[in-house]
Design a protein that fits this description.
Elements: H1 3-20, H2 33-50, H3 52-55, H4 59-69, H5 76-84, H6 93-111, E1 122-125, E2 136-144, E3 150-159, E4 165-173, E5 176-177, H7 178-214
Antiparallel strand pairs: 1-2, 2-3, 3-4, 4-5
């Protein structure tokens, strides 16, 4: 498998794992972050290999899972805010909702097609160095398949209160952080057309992607 293909597979694994949240989280509050990533990775690979709709990149199937489970394994507001940058603080509640909705759809549509490439890959989680008091950690893992091993890093934060536990808010594949990649794109759009311009651009990209899938 070419490195570009593996990047797309890795990103799709993150996207569906982080966005779908399709698995029980009975011990999420006290589950260690590296144990959580290992569990999600193993369960995700099993689901992809047995669900033909996910393998084919069926957007309706993926989005149904996303919407029904309310993304319990990711702080998606933080992901979106980080991708938007300083302009997020000036956004209205309606703009924030639109940005999150369009960004979620963009991620799902961008990476869903790579799910069909998942076959014999395995994921191992590396030993983690952290302190009990840490509220943010990096969990490192590795995808092994037919090509060279690919390193993945997950950034997680520990959230207090109701729904507490470790939540993903960024991913590094091949040395590239997903949120920072989108931030550079979003910043250009915001600088020229403002937040509403970014929302319109995301909406248009999603419309084009949807038409491309249909074709």
């Amino acid at each position: 498998m070419k490195r570009r293909s593996v990047f797309r597979v890795a990103a799709s694994l993150f996207t569906v794992a982080a966005l779908a949240g399709a698995w029980p989280l009975a011990h999420a509050a006290d589950e260690a972050p590296d144990a959580m990533i290992k569990r999600l990775s193993d369960e995700l690979l099993t689901v992809i290999r047995t669900d033909k709709s996910l393998q084919s990149g069926d957007i309706n199937r993926i989005m149904a899972v996303v919407d029904s489970k309310i993304m319990p394994n990711v702080n998606f507001q933080r992901m979106t805010a980080s991708a938007v940058g300083p302009a997020w603080r000036q956004a209205t509640p309606e703009q924030k909702k639109r940005l999150q909705d369009e960004f979620k759809l963009l991620l799902v549509r961008t990476y869903s097609g790579a799910l069909s490439q998942v076959s014999e890959e395995t994921i191992s989680v590396k030993p983690m160095r952290s302190q009990p008091a840490d509220t943010e950690v990096v969990v490192r893992s590795e995808i092994r398949g037919r090509g060279d091993p690919i390193q993945l890093e997950y950034r997680l934060e520990k959230t207090p209160g109701e729904g507490s536990g470790w939540k993903i808010f960024n991913l590094n594949v091949l040395g590239v952080w997903l949120v920072e990649t989108y931030r550079s794109q979003f910043t250009q759009e915001i600088n020229t057309k403002g937040l509403d311009g970014l929302i319109a651009a995301l909406s248009e990209r999603n419309r084009v992607n949807a038409n491309g899938k249909k074709g």
